[in-house]
Amino acid sequence: MEFLEIVGGARLKGTIDISGAKNAALPIMAASILVDGETTLHNVPDLADVRQMQLLLTRLGVKAERDDEGVMRLCVKDEMNVCAEYNLVNKMRASVCVMGPLLAKRKRAQVSMPGGCAIGDRPIDLHVRGLEGLGADHDLVNGDVILRAKKLTGTDIFLGGPFGSSVTATANVMMAATLATGRTVIDSAACEPEIVDLAAFLNACGARISGQGTPQIVIEGVESLTGTEHSIVADRIEAGTYMIAAAITNGDVEVRNARIDHLQAVVDRLRRVGVIIERAEQGISVSSSRRLEPVQATTQPYPGFPTDLQAQLMVLLCLADGNSMITEKVFPDRFLHVGELNRMGAMLRKEGPTVIIEGVKRLVGAQVMASDLRASAALVLGGLVAKGTTRIHRVYHIDRGYEQIEKKLAGVGANIRRLQE
User: Fold this and answer.
1) Which domain holds residue 35?
2) Active site residue: 117, 191, 205, 318, which one?
């Protein structure tokens, strides 16, 4: 089993290139099921989740090949299989994104209830409700969701959930609606840049989608979609993670390819902490003062502060001069990293969906265990600034969403390496 070993104390300085967004690449890959002809995607990150989706698509009759330059070519070769089986889906929640494309193109979808990170309950009822609105029938058989529809018909669909809009449900319904008859209006749609990128890809294939990036998306159904070329948008969560890495080490880093317009809520909180953030010619430059101010933050659906950067911000606030507070409004149970950070000398107290953070002078190296993708990143950030050596186990979590994280950080001065137990 691999682990990351980090000797803390190095000040990060230099340039980090941001990869394509995992959360954009996965649904766009799934959308290739809808397309007649070849799809060519650029800037596809080399991640465990991407490889898992590639394997799933192969089982569903899609030829999917990625080269060393991040170019992936996809083409449907066989439309017989409609079953996304348990041994593939249970490893990655985004596998559920094949549900809408399979239903629209092959009239049937059988998808095992999805797996992924242990960050709390994430039911797929919004997905099913949206697809039923388009005309599908569904059953739950032996843990599989089975959807059938001889024809999909456009309609008005509300996708609001108890913790706001759902990105993957919006993606699923939007993909299915592209081949539905008539007009579909999705209200309370997710506004994330990854949804905008998916819509851009589908429109390039011949879809007629408008309103993406707002809470109301309108889809005029078309008869077919054809292959195209598309470049995956830069990963705003990876960018935010490295911005916090620069800040926590009192570094000076240019996060290249990052889009500041996708990170306004993050920029706002970091500037209040005392981080200096400026637009750079090819991305964002980040440095920080030695004194970090305490702040309050609440995670929300985009354009609010992203839940996927909650753990990373928490590590930074561990070193602030005073008490901070983070409230999780998207996944209220997403605090498995709290115990591990306390093992490193943090002073964190969980009260319901809120964590009270008492600033400390320093963190100390320790043996810690990653529990999910973003918690893994938080532990890496803690290790970068901790006194002594930190070893992070179960790094397969971090490989799901960060491309060569140890190489990127070592490239700007971090003392980090991947070892085998």
Assistant:
1) 22-231
2) 117
